[in-house]
Amino acid sequence: INEQEPDLTQPLSFIGVFEFEGLKFDVYEGAGGHAKGEIVAKGSNNDLLITGDILVNAKGFLPEQAEFNLLSPYLMTSVNMDSTLASAERRAVVSLAKSSNSFVLPGHGTPFRLGER
Predict the structure, then answer these.
(1) Which of 40, 88, 92, 97 gives 102 a disulfide partner, CB atoms 3.0 to 4.6 angstroms apart?
(2) Are 25 and 39 in contact (CB under 8 A)?
(3) CA-CA distance, 15 to 105, in Å (whole number)?
(4) What is the value of pTM for the model shown?
(5) pLDDT in the model for residue 77
(6) How far apart are CA 112 and CA 32, in angstroms?
(7) Distance (Å, rounded) from C-alpha 79 to C-alpha 7?
């Protein structure tokens, strides 16, 4: 995928294209706000975003996920490497969407339409 090196001065930067079973995705690497090496895949021929942990759907957590999520503050100081940068990455992911109807496959929680958040 690494057609070009990521520009880590930007929240998200284009690094290449991934094709699979007739689907084509533009791939972006985050600057490490949540975790180093995080990626986002944006469907080039559809309205799909695969966001990993940069964007999650807490409303769509299974009961076990929601219960575990309550422990996070006690297990670590933050779920992000850099919370300010993670926020910038989330905004950048949303700006990649073609519309508020974009379908999101998040890192945690159930899939959702961006406008339904």
Answers:
(1) 97
(2) no
(3) 20
(4) 0.85
(5) 66
(6) 24
(7) 23
CA distances for 8 relative to 11, 63, 83, 89, angstroms: 7, 36, 15, 11
Element containing residue 28 per DSSP (H, E): strand 23-30
- The CA–CA distances, whole Å, from 91 to 21, 86, 97, 111 equal 29, 9, 10, 18
Contact 11, 31 (CB under 8 A): yes
Per-residue confidence (pLDDT) for residue 45, from 0 to 100: 77
Q: Tell me the C-alpha distance between 12 and 27, whole Å.
A: 10
> Got the DSSP string for 53-114?
TTS--GGG--HHHHHHHTTHHHH-S-SSS-HHHHHHHHHHHHHH-SSTT-EEEESSS--EEG
Residue position matching structure tokens 């950048």:
92
